[in-house]
Design goal:
2 domains, 343 residues, alpha+beta, 5 strands, 12 helices
Length: 343
């Protein structure tokens, strides 16, 4: 849906804690402390307190049972309940108005800007309904302006902090899953992705694993220096990304001069990818050592393997055959053999 939560677990806890606190608070202040009020009013407040407490328990223990629409509507429901309770108790003092902070903070933390804006508008209208009924005109106007401005500024600050936190988290996640030299994914990201990619691959959506070694990379480092070696690695990583074109892919540096590419491709398309990658490396300029050659092993799910571990094993075996065959070439994994006969 259009208004998905940023953090379902956090949102459920926020709603639960509010309801579990608001239910008893409303019961004490609206029922026990006002037993002399008209009976229908006291009964209504008591039932509201019970409902709030029960909803809080559900959100704490079984949040998945709540309708999906409940979560984006929660700030409006919360602000509406607060306004109704303030009107029912004829209380326009500052204390009850502070409860408006909860639906505002909930929206600012977990929902989008449109809902945040609408929440501020509803809070402003709800407070106006209370203030202009139970306060003198001048004081009501001042309180209404103060609450509206305070809620608006709170929303601006919280959203700004949230977005800054999102940017910082994005940077940290990128640093944790990428290779700083080449910009490719690192081993950690590759290990996480290959299991998922193999699980969803099939005859109609094959997955190729292409293992690449830069031939004689130690010689490049020893002869031309590590700066040239680093440039060669960046050149290879760029070529692998470019050769993937529009196919779904992941380029990863597994360590040293070893790269891996997860590619949405059948065997023929995977071979075509390796040809394009070689051509792009060969066309690279600015390398004192000259373009490096590549040894490549290819394996495809489901043609050569069915699991992530098996796919890596047969792709590695194909890579070793390419290196043993003289380097600078590509080898395809052997087709998966028939299943052993069972008794």
């Amino acid at each position: 849906m259009a208004h998905q939560l940023r953090d379902m677990h956090g949102a459920a806890r926020a709603v639960a804690y509010l309801m579990l606190a608001a239910g008893p608070y409303n019961f004490v202040t609206g029922v026990l402390m006002k037993l002399g009020n008209p009976l229908p009013e006291v009964v209504a407040l008591a039932l509201t307190s019970i409902v709030l407490f029960i909803v809080g328990l559900i959100c704490l223990r079984r949040p998945e049972t709540m309708p999906r629409l409940f979560w984006p509507l929660m700030p409006f429901l919360g602000a509406g309940v607060i306004s109704a309770l303030n009107v029912a108790t004829r209380d326009a003092t500052l204390g009850p108005q502070l409860f408006y902070l909860w639906p505002l903070l909930y929206a600012a933390m977990f929902l989008n800007r449109r809902i945040i804006t609408l929440t501020v508008v509803q809070i402003s209208a709800g407070h106006a309904l209370t203030a202009f009924q139970f306060q003198e005109g001048g004081q009501a106007l001042l309180d209404w302006i103060a609450i509206t401005v305070a809620m608006s500024m709170t929303a601006v600050v919280v959203v700004g902090l949230r977005e800054r936190n999102d940017r910082l988290r994005g940077v940290l996640e990128a640093q944790a899953t990428s290779d700083s030299l080449t910009g490719a994914a690192n081993r950690r990201a590759f290990d996480a992705e290959i299991s998922h990619a193999v699980a969803v691959a099939g005859p109609d959506d094959p997955l190729a694993l292409v293992m690449i070694d830069v031939d004689h990379f130690k010689r490049i480092n020893d002869t031309w220096g590590h700066a040239v070696g680093d440039l060669a690695l960046r050149t290879v990583a760029d070529a692998l990304r470019d050769a993937a074109e529009d196919r779904r892919h992941m380029v990863a540096r597994l360590g040293g001069d070893e790269f891996a590419v997860l590619l949405q491709a059948a065997p023929y398309a995977a071979v075509r990818f390796t040809e394009l990658a070689r051509a792009r490396v060969a066309a690279a300029t600015g390398l004192p050592s000259g373009p490096p050659s590549l040894s490549i092993g290819i394996a495809v799910v489901p043609d050569h393997a069915v699991g992530a571990d098996e796919l890596q094993r047969v792709a590695d075996a194909a890579l070793y055959r390419a290196k043993e065959g003289g380097r600078g070439r590509s080898m395809m994994a052997q087709p998966a053999g028939p299943l052993p006969a069972t008794a």
